[in-house]
């Protein structure tokens, strides 16, 4: 009888502890085209939750991370939002594609939950599809294109471009904005191949690469992500395209270089909003502590994807503390226009579109021998150009032009 009572008491205490936790939901790709980026998202989120709980949690309660696999599928990401809501989550974040971010963000809005996009780069996320309950921490296609465009116009002027793009929201966004930024809008001179979303066959990669090789272009833009980008880079390397073309990968990630290999990726140019050595460059003590904690936990440097997830959790928690509430409308007011410094220099949640304004960097993958000299052999990126978030992001007038008749977030 005593054991039964003890078991009931423990169960009651456990249930009370669970009920007292504040839950947040992470939508991330554990499988599929973007699984490597998904691993970094979860690692960054867990470090943020652990850090917050070490400091006493939020509003007297511990923070609990719920996570579900999206398999890089917008419909699954949307179903996950329903699941998180049923579990009592107060906020949802993540996604590895813009389609996921838009669809899951819309469902979160219907359920009265904030949604923070991490890897959704298409302009539509905070542009045409922007809404009050959706915030984006990662940079946009506008931001990547502008920092790349300025660097390329200075260092590789009057070049002929060829584009291989994924035919989805982000692929179309980055192609359009990069063409404008580099003066390569004339498709008769600056050709392209459009690849369908999802896994591709080897023949599709080969046809696109053969077309690029025959184009006579000086610059090859691979507007691809995940496994598709990894396979395309290996093929470009094996075909010797880097000997005659400068390859541009608009959104570079640590996981891409790790999976493909430094020899294949060396000298490729792209963009990042954060690298593991950014905190030193920007004199961010909190950023350096994050790097050290990640190193102790995983024996490797963190990438920008992990930093994005960490920042989202910490910023939501900060808004909760400042407003003493987890109510979505109250937190929107606390976030809009808020400036902060966490893992780098100053950032801001812009009020009219909920885009996170932050410095964005053009980076080049270092030579393999340089990378191998690093203790962990992971010092992949050299920052070659920097642009402020205010300069890189679309202006209010440009945002209004994209929005059309709906001139405020609804």
TrEMBL record:
Transmembrane segments: none annotated. Keywords: Signal. SUPFAM superfamilies: Periplasmic binding protein-like I. InterPro entries: BCAA_transport (IPR051010), Leu-bd (IPR028081), Peripla_BP_I (IPR028082). Residues 22-367 form the Leucine-binding protein domain. Residues 1-19 form the signal peptide. Belongs to the leucine-binding protein family. This is ABC transporter substrate-binding protein. It comes from Pseudomonas sediminis. The lineage of its organism: Bacteria, Pseudomonadati, Pseudomonadota, Gammaproteobacteria, Pseudomonadales.
């Amino acid at each position: 009888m005593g054991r039964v009572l003890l078991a009931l008491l423990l169960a009651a205490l456990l249930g009370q502890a669970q009920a007292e936790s504040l839950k947040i939901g992470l939508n991330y790709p554990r499988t599929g085209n973007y699984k490597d980026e998904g691993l970094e998202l979860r690692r960054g989120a867990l470090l943020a939750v652990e850090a917050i709980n070490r400091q006493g949690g939020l509003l007297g309660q511990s923070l609990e991370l719920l996570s579900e696999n999206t398999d890089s599928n917008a419909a699954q990401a949307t179903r996950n939002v329903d699941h998180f809501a049923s579990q009592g989550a107060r906020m949802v974040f993540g996604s590895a594609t813009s389609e996921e971010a838009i669809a899951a963000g819309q469902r979160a809005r219907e359920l009265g939950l904030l949604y923070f996009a991490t890897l959704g780069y298409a302009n539509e996320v905070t542009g045409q599809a922007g809404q009050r309950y959706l915030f984006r921490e990662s940079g946009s296609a506008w931001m990547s294109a502008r920092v790349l465009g300025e660097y390329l116009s200075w260092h590789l002027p009057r070049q002929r471009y060829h584009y291989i793009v994924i035919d989805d929201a982000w692929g179309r966004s980055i192609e359009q904005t990069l063409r404008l930024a580099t003066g390569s809008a004339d498709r008769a001179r600056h050709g392209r191949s459009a690849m369908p979303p999802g896994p591709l066959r080897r023949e599709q990669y080969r046809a696109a690469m053969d077309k690029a090789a025959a184009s006579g272009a000086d610059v090859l833009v691979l507007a691809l992500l995940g496994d598709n980008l990894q396979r395309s880079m290996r093929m470009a390397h094996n075909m010797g395209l880097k000997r005659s073309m400068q390859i541009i990968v608009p959104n570079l990630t640590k996981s891409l270089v790790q999976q493909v290999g430094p020899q294949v990726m060396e000298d490729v140019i792209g963009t990042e909003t954060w690298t593991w050595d950014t905190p030193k460059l920007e004199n961010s003590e909190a950023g350096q502590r994050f790097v050290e904690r990640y190193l102790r936990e995983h024996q490797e440097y963190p990438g920008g994807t992990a930093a994005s997830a960490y920042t989202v959790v910490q910023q939501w928690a900060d808004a909760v503390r400042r407003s003493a509430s987890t109510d979505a409308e109250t937190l929107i007011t606390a976030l809009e226009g808020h400036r902060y410094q966490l893992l780098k220099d100053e950032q801001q949640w812009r009020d009219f579109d909920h885009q996170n304004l932050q410095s964005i960097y053009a980076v080049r993958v270092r030579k393999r021998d340089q990378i191998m000299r690093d203790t962990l052999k992971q010092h992949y990126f050299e920052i070659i150009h920097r642009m402020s978030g205010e300069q890189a992001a679309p202006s209010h007038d440009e945002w209004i032009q994209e929005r059309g008749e709906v001139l405020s977030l609804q």
